[in-house]
């Protein structure tokens, strides 16, 4: 019995329908949205950072950027222990805008794996900016090793655990908060130059019209007039002492002579 035209058409289309169904089943769905806060929450030691990202809305900004970014992003994530190293009141002393800047200072506007840091050209621009332009960091690494350090001008911070590293996002843990030099100053102020010691045997110069220091009075040599006066006084004193001795000697001689004369009178 011959098949109906409709059945024949259906029979011929069956292979194509099966292929279409199979393609629909294996076709991948849309790529899952990258979630920075989810990565940090999974890490388990970034509570302070998560609160700051939420309060400043930087988490929303980064999520939006990741959807359309061609270069990707790199994020340095300070741990709770890192925030505990800050002086008490540091975060509360920042304005809302400064807190936003602090969070964006931890974001590089490009995806960097640990190996690509070795060929990176310093300084690297962060997403924080101010009156002087974009804030930057210097990243150095040891060739052949995964030792990476981030220098801000305030401190040098080693990069720790890799929390996530798949384009377009890399997230690295750090044990210190990255502090921009523009907000927190340099690492240390210059120490005052030490005063030069006074050379031995050399007295300080007297100010015009001022009194001479005590040690200079002691070290000062007497003038010629003073020396002559002292010499005259010493000569006069010596002469007086000699005259006194001579008077005493004549007095003794006179006394002896009187005693002898008295004895002669008594005998006579």
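Q: What amino acid sequence fits the structure above?
A:
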């Amino acid at each position: 019995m011959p098949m109906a035209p409709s059945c024949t058409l259906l029979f011929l289309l069956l292979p194509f329908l099966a292929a279409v169904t199979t393609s629909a089943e294996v076709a991948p769905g849309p790529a899952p949205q990258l979630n920075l806060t989810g990565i940090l929450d999974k890490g388990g030691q970034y509570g302070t950072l998560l609160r700051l990202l939420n309060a400043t809305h930087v988490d929303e900004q980064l999520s939006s950027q990741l959807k359309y970014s061609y270069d990707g992003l790199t994020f340095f994530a300070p741990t709770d222990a890192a925030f505990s190293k800050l002086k008490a009141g540091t975060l509360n002393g920042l304005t809302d805008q400064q807190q936003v800047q602090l969070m964006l200072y931890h974001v590089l506007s490009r995806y960097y794996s640990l190996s690509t840091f070795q060929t990176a050209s310093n300084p690297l621009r962060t997403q924080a900016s101010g009156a002087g332009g974009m804030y930057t960091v210097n990243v150095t690494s040891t060739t052949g090793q995964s030792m990476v350090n981030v220098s801000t001008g305030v401190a040098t911070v080693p990069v720790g655990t890799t929390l996530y590293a798949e384009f377009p996002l890399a997230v690295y843990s750090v044990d210190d908060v990255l502090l921009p030099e523009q907000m927190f100053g340099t690492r240390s102020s210059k120490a005052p130059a030490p005063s030069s010691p006074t050379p031995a045997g050399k007295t300080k110069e007297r100010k015009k019209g001022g009194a001479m220091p005590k040690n200079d009075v002691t070290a000062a040599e007497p003038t010629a007039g003073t020396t002559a006066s002292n010499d005259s006084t010493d000569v006069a004193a010596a002469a007086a002492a000699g005259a006194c001795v001579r008077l005493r000697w004549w007095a003794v001689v006179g006394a002896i002579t009187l005693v002898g004369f008295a004895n002669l009178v008594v005998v006579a």
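Q: And what stands out in the fold?
A: DSSP finds nine helices and seven strands in the chain.
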